[in-house]
């Protein structure tokens, strides 16, 4: 079984290309996924300048690739479901390069808008304009 699910933030804007001859769109980006560390261990690693996240290369094909390029941006929280793929290629200098990446079958945009306050967890008075009976809920009053 080859299945992976990741949630993280984009480290750069997606790069969109089209395959010559077929015109198939392909988008690539990198996802920073936090390592499961205790608060103390995370602070210790940060103090030493060590990374507290893994940086995973993602490849998306087809219409979904165009959507990623159009709607995702650096820093956005994103979920990816897909499979791990390993491949090799010969670089221009003649050396053999090895690449491991996730080929995304599904990409879920977890944040929208120009800043991180515009995600699904935020609410404002304009969330339900013109609909009677709906009001924003104060998260502090929810018992769970």
Automatic annotation (TrEMBL):
It comes from [Clostridium] ultunense Esp. Residues 135-144 have a biased composition (Acidic residues). One of its GO terms (cellular component) is nucleoid. Keywords: DNA-binding. Coiled coil: none annotated. CDD domains: SSB_OBF (cd04496). It comes from the Bacteria. Homotetramer. Pfam families: SSB. InterPro entries: NA-bd_OB-fold, Primosome_PriB/ssb, ssDNA-bd. Residues 116-128 have a biased composition (Low complexity). One of its GO terms (biological process) is DNA replication. Residues 116-144 are annotated as: Disordered. One of its GO terms (molecular function) is single-stranded DNA binding. This is Single-stranded DNA-binding protein.
């Amino acid at each position: 079984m080859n299945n992976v699910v990741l949630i993280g933030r984009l480290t750069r804007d997606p790069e969109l290309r089209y395959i010559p001859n077929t015109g198939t769109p392909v988008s690539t980006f990198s996802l920073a996924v936090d390592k499961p560390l205790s608060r103390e261990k995370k602070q210790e690693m940060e103090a030493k300048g060590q990374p507290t996240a893994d940086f995973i290369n993602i490849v998306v094909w087809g219409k979904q690739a165009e959507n990623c390029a159009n709607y995702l941006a650096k820093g956005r929280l994103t979920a990816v479901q897909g499979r791990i793929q390993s491949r090799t290629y010969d670089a221009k200098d003649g050396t053999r390069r090895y690449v491991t990446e996730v080929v995304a079958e599904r990409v879920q945009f977890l944040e929208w808008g120009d800043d991180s306050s515009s995600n699904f967890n935020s609410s404002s008075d304009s969330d339900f304009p013109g609909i009677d009976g709906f009001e924003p809920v104060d998260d502090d009053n929810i018992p769970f």
